[in-house]
Amino acid sequence: MVYAERVQGDPDNYISLLSAAQIETLRLVFEHKNSKEIARIMDVSPHTVDERVRRALKKLNVSNRVEAATILARNGVFDQVTPYQPLTYQLFDLGDPPQAADAGAGHSSTRRLFDIGTPFPTASQPANRHGLMERIIWPILIAFATILAFSALYSILVGLGRVLT
Q1: Measured between alpha carbons, how far is 130 from 119 in angstroms, rounded to an integer?
Q2: What is the DSSP track for 54-109?
Q3: 28 or 94: which leads in pLDDT
Q4: Spatial distance between the Cα atoms of 27 and 132, rounded to a whole number of angstroms
């Protein structure tokens, strides 16, 4: 079902043109899901999700997915859906964490230098929010640890070889 012209006017007219799959896709957009997450939930490919959103954008005469989801929400299509926050996006880094009163000046900078987080998801950090330095440091640390482990293994084998001969 392809429409040549974008519909203008009453929201009820153009909301009724959306398919159930497009409405469900935009509902998940309203819940702040990206295309990959929506694809997993709906058991379709991310390309299919993007195509559904693209066609809905044309039908609703809007320029982005957030606008489309907001239109549907304003018109009561998502009345049973409560998003965890309004459709505004925040930066990941909202400022420096407060300093502890008993922390020394050199203490906090040393802690900050070595507090780079883990390179894999955990319960407290499910998403990878590392900056450029952390992304560079982790492969270097892993390579260094690997070299250290193989050196220790080689030393043990050489020592064992000397003992046995």
Answers
A1: 8
A2: HHHHHHHT-SSHHHHHHHHHHTTTTTT---SS-S----S--SPPPPPTT--HHHHH
A3: 28
A4: 33
